[in-house]
Amino acid sequence: MHMEIYNKFRSMMDNHIILSFKGEINSDIISMVLQIMETKLDAVQEKGTVKKRIFNILVECMQNLYHHAESENLQDTDRRAAMLEMFFDDEFYYITSGNFIKIEEVDKLRDRIERVNSLDKDDLRAYYREILDNNRISNKGGADLGMIDMAKKSGQKLDYEFTEVNDKVSFFGLKVKIGKNKE
Asked: I need a labelling partner for 112 at 20 to 30 A (CA). Which of 22, 136, 151, 176 fits?
């Protein structure tokens, strides 16, 4: 048997992966991830507004996974697998998340992200205010507030993809980048 563990480790080191998680997101996992990230960001000496932005976006991503992840077959509610990863390069931190969603939700989610991506900073602020003022919040969350907040906090467009898995679900991948402090 040929072991690839070192190659996997080397790849994680070379790609500056700070966090890599696959499984179901629950409140214990959210707490644990935030504690780990506190230590990891201290280790790379990230502080101030960038650290706050990272935490805010991480929380939003995990809340999305917690509230919206489906199981791959839509039957097994105990197995709502998701993934979360954070890595960096010289200019940015990247937070990626992925989860299964019902295929009939793809177009609506794509439209919502495209709308958020089409807005500049001031328009994002106005759209956020409009949603709050009109009480358009569902029992699963904030009717685009999380997506708007991630775009506002990152100052970047949200990168996303949908991969059709079968006739019932697609896999939704989201990538958010946060600029590093330039001191």
From this structure: 22
